[in-house]
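lol forgot to send this yesterday, sorry. struct tokens for the thing we talked abt
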């Protein structure tokens, strides 16, 4: 009886990457119509997400990633509760379960229940053996482990229901940028992608920025002017107008460039269309601050030489994770490999 092997999986995933690069007419039409289901999923943003998946499925990266993967001889049923904040955000969790030879019990988000199934149908057509490893469910039951992505509030629910089985339960996280004042214009343009890609809805989007003391805000605002068209999206514009009105009514000090509000605040999580900021004295203190908040941070982008345990990404890279850059810095493949011993 044919079985899944690393070679078969790598070939299948590579071919899926090829399909993403040159999709058929049916999938191309789905890209164009995705915004009818979810207004945030414009064709441009869906294509942006697909480019990220295409990079993720490159032959070189797959070969590197699979060196740490053990194919399960006795597949476990892994429940996946997927988020729907950005297009196909749960793809990596599904890929990890399939890559380890396990069975993915997929609870889709109602906000993203078309694109991912379409990709997985293509994957099954490439490698039919995967058909028995992909199951869609409305309610999780009969599972051996769970990977659940949600908010701080839903995490308490997840802990209650799934605490007795091996699990990865993800809470709210935010991403951070640290400027030194010596950035080139091109770097700050790339930072704009970290802030505005997917309208800022992802946990890998920068929601808080740290400036050196005395930083001139116009040096940040001017290079990101090219992202001004984001204001024409009605849902983003609604958030911008709402938050601006709150700050004006409350006489809250803030900066405004016409499509982004910049407000000084100690919190890491800012409202949509708002970027919180603080000033810092020196990079040593900045490093200590970020390490103390590491459990709330998804990733940090900066050109500064910050000695952070979880590392620092170059500007423009927050939304392009490699296969081995795991959410919340929890190695999903190690977790799935260990299921064979439980």
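and heres what i got for the seq, position by position
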């Amino acid at each position: 009886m044919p079985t899944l092997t690393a070679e078969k999986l790598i070939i299948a995933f590579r071919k899926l990457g090829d399909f993403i690069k040159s999709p058929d007419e049916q999938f191309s039409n789905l890209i164009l119509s995705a915004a009818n289901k979810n207004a945030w999923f414009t064709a441009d943003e869906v294509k942006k997400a697909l480019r990220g998946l295409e990079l993720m499925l490159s032959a070189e990266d797959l070969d590197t990633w699979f060196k740490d993967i053990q194919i399960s001889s006795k597949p476990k049923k892994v429940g996946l509760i997927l988020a729907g904040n950005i297009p196909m955000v749960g793809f990596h969790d599904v890929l990890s379960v399939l890559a380890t030879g396990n069975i993915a019990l997929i609870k889709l988000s109602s906000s993203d229940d078309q694109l991912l199934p379409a990709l997985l149908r293509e994957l099954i057509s490439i490698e039919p053996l995967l058909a028995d490893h992909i199951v869609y469910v409305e309610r999780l039951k009969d599972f051996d482990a769970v990977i659940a992505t949600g908010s701080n509030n839903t995490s308490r629910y997840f802990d209650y229901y799934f605490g007795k089985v091996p699990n990865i339960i993800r809470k709210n996280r935010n991403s951070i940028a640290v400027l030194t004042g010596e950035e080139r214009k091109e770097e700050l343009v790339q930072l704009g992608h970290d802030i505005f890609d997917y309208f800022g809805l992802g946990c890998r989007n920068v929601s808080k920025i740290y400036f050196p003391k005395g930083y001139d805000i116009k040096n940040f605002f001017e290079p990101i002017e090219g992202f001004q068209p984001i204001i024409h999206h009605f849902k983003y514009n609604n958030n911008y107008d709402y938050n601006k009105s709150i700050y004006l009514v409350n006489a809250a000090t803030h900066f405004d460039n016409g499509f982004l509000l910049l407000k000084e605040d100690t919190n890491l999580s800012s409202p949509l269309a708002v970027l919180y900021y603080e000033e810092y004295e020196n990079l040593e203190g900045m490093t200590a601050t970020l390490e103390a908040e590491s459990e709330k941070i998804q990733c940090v982008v900066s050109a500064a030489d910050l000695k952070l345990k979880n590392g620092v990404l170059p500007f423009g890279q927050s939304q392009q994770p490699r296969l081995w850059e795991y959410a919340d810095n929890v190695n999903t493949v190690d977790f799935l490999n260990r299921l064979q011993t439980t």
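The chain has two domains: 6-171, 174-302. anyway ping me if u want another try
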